[in-house]
Task: inverse folding
């Protein structure tokens, strides 16, 4: 009786056992292509009765199209129809996403990194050759008010938020290759999460600072004839006793101002579209506008023709956002250089808001004379009557 039960039990497990062994063996013996075909791709000669996305194939007859055609259409980004509200779900495979991923991981990041390194090297070379630009007549000890509290608050709101955005943004691009190997996964994960949130929220502070600086300083940054002279003399950066006359902002600063405003606006708009995705058609619209004046950007850059899908718009946005951000970082490197180690007495303008009268006379002679003549209350100690 005991024997019988044991034999029946063995028979019960024997069949599934053999079946399982056969399955395993088939898996081991089948050539890899056969496995790939059975798991992912339909066989070459397969036909289907599923209607392919897009216009009916093969003379309008549905049901005789080969699966290969359908798969090719899907593979090439054909958008089908879906019953749910999010119509973008009709896109099963977006091939350009792979191009975008490879670009972002590959040459593009390298170029962005080289651009920043090249700027730092150029500034270091310039510093080595020119040295610190000194106040030639020495400090007078007399101070002249240059920026109000509101101006300095706006500057520092814009500047500190930009620096925060720069550091957190560069972590998206270079963190994985530069920071991760140093601090390890356990730290890099939470740190990147924190920096991502910081980046998103700080963006609003930057936009406010940018708008305030624009309103406060636009009046001093309209180009005029003094700028041409200033540029012709190379801003007096090369050689000594060669300070061309300048108003409150010289031509170099006006270039920085407009660079910051235009790049800042572009980085803000593309950043906004990344924060609130799939709602903006920035590239389709811009390329159409440029197309109207004869500039065919997609043809020049070898991009697919617009209109672009929502996901393509996001991909272009992410590329554009980082290119503009890095261009602005390079510009700001030069700005920070001249505002700190590059020029004696410059930092005070944004630090205390007051600069030395001799500094003002050398670098902004027209502005300094105007203040001395018309607003003596801005000078301390007050000039003797
Ligand atoms: C540590 C960082 C920074 C320092 C030390 C610094 C310093 C200065 C100084 C001293 C000035 C006044 C120059 C003058 O008296 O004429 C200035 C002006 C200005 N700064 Fe900054 N800045 C910094 C970061 C930034 C950043 C990140 C931005 C933009 C995102 C920025 C945008 C501007 C603009 C638009 C002006 C007016 C135009 C000009 O003077 O070039 N600054 N900054």
Result:
């Amino acid at each position: 009786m005991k024997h019988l039960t044991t034999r029946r039990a063995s028979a019960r497990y024997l069949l599934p056992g053999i079946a399982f062994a056969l399955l395993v063996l088939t898996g081991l013996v089948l050539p890899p292509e056969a496995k790939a075909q059975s798991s992912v791709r339909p066989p070459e000669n397969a036909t289907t009765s599923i209607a392919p996305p897009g216009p009916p194939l093969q003379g309008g007859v549905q049901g005789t199209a080969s699966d290969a055609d359908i798969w090719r259409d899907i593979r090439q980004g054909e958008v089908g129809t879906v019953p749910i509200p999010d119509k973008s779900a009709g896109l099963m495979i977006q091939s350009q996403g792979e191009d975008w991923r490879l670009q972002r991981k590959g040459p593009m990041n390298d170029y962005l990194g080289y651009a920043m390194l090249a700027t730092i090297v150029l500034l270091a070379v310039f510093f080595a050759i020119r040295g610190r630009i000194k106040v030639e007549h020495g400090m007078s000890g007399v101070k002249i008010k240059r920026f109000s509290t509101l101006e300095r608050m706006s500057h520092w709101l814009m500047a500190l938020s930009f620096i925060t955005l720069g550091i957190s943004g560069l972590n998206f691009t270079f963190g994985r290759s530069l920071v991760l190997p140093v601090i390890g996964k356990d730290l890099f994960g939470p740190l990147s999460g924190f920096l991502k949130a910081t980046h998103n929220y700080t963006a609003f502070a930057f936009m406010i600072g940018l708008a305030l600086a624009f309103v406060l300083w636009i009046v001093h940054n309209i180009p005029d004839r003094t700028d041409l002279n200033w540029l012709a003399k190379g801003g007096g950066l090369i050689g000594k006793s060669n300070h061309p006359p300048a108003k409150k902002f010289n031509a170099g600063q006006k270039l920085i101002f407009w660079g910051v405003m235009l790049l800042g606006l572009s980085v803000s708009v593309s950043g906004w579209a990344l924060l609130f995705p799939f709602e903006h058609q920035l590239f389709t619209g811009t390329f159409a506008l440029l197309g109207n004046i004869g500039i065919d950007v997609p043809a020049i850059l070898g991009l697919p023709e617009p209109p672009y899908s929502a996901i393509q718009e996001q991909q272009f946005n992410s590329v554009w956002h980082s290119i503009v951000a890095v261009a602005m970082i390079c510009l700001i490197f030069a700005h920070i250089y001249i505002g700190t180690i590059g020029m004696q007495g410059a930092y005070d303008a944004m630090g205390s808001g007051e600069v030395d009268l001799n500094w003002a006379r050398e670098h902004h002679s027209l502005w300094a004379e105007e203040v001395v003549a018309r607003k003596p209350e801005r000078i301390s100690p007050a000039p003797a009557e």
Observations:
- The two ends are 128 Å apart (CA to CA).
- The chain has 15 helices and three strands.
- The longest helix spans residues 149-183.
- The mean pLDDT is 86.
